[in-house]
Amino acid sequence: LCEHGAPPPFLFMTGQGAADQAVRLLRSGAADYLMKPFDMGQFLERLTQVITPPGLATKGPWFGISPMARALDSDLDRLADRAEPVLILGDGGTGKRLVAHRLHRLSDRRSAPFIAVDLTRLSPQDMVREVLDPDSGAFTRAGEGSVLIERIGRASADLQARLVAALWASDGAAGPRLIATDGADLMPDSLRPDLYFHMSVLTLKIPAFRSRPEDAVWLMSRLFEGMNARRSVPFRGISPQAEQAVRAHDWPGNGRELRARLMRAMAMAKGDTVFP
Description:
Largest sheet: 5 strands, parallel
Number of strands: 9
Order of helices and strands: EHEHHEHEHHEHEHEHEHHE
Helix content: 40-55%
Shape: globular
Strand order of the largest sheet: 4-5-6-3-7
Number of helices: 11
Strand content: 5-15%
Structural class: alpha/beta
Radius of gyration: 21 Å
């Protein structure tokens, strides 16, 4: 049906726990899926999502197909229009910046700027200027939008003190929303206590790929589609052996490692199919 005209959106249900079927059918053109058993409310909500016109759609698999990815999507919906700061924690390569941007896009601040500042690229002397300078700092440029501070655990003592003052002054009533990210191992003593407990009220933890291998296969298929479309002679597809290798690997580098390995596999493949 997908090869002839404009088919209706497909929402399929499955009683199989394995991710193979879900990945295969989503790749083939399905809009979404449900795992049995499910209740009628869940079915109607998912059905509404898949029949929404493309320009208005904000749902569906965007971060993964695992229950953990679905839970993250649900959490983002609940937190999107709140004013409090959000702390996003996860290992390197798990997509923390992607989640922060998604949070902004789902909120009523979406029409205002999303400004990101990576503290690992700044000296302690430049941090306050880049974030809080009244003329050119991220808080000023963002307006009523969102400010993302990456690697908040690297913040200088001066920046931490000024952030606390800024948060208390605004009290969520005006100015941008603060979103911060760091590794999964961020400890309370990595920041001054008043800043940590202010930031950690709303915390999102992104699980690594080693705990959700079905999402690694799903992401590989999405990356493959984009890379394959740019090739002069496209591949026919990814072999089942390659998908099994993805499921079996623990992915210490998460999404970054997966993308790099897929790029190498596609560059080195000799036939018309990608193998391990």
